[in-house]
Request: fold
Amino acid sequence: MQIDNDPYVLVEGVPDVATFRHLRTASGMSDRPAEAVAAGLPNTWFGVTVHRDGEPIGMGRIVGDGGVVFQIADVCVLPDHQGRGLGKRIMARLTAELEQRAPKGAYVSLIADGDAHRLYGKYGFVETAPYSVGMHRLV
Reply:
């Protein structure tokens, strides 16, 4: 999806393994092992990549079981392109897809790093505390 006179193009799908890892790390997120990324990307329920001049500069995806539970993950934009509303465009497209295709009552979660909670709040996400607390574990 491209807007007139806008150099940024939102493309459905996920990037290749190397691009995924680059976008994460260059955006300040942690790296993931190549073999793990290669196994995980094909299981994406829905994803988008933002391109400028044919180069990927941002992404976001939805993972989950396709019915009951979904998680928005890997939302990032390269630093040189931040502050231009691209995170909002990614989130708008991801949430539109959820509203269109996810079953009514599906649980959608995400982890908000730093100040990202401000962005996610604009799309209806609320903190779960004190009723529940997000937890994680690395293997």
Notes: The chain has a mean pLDDT of 94.
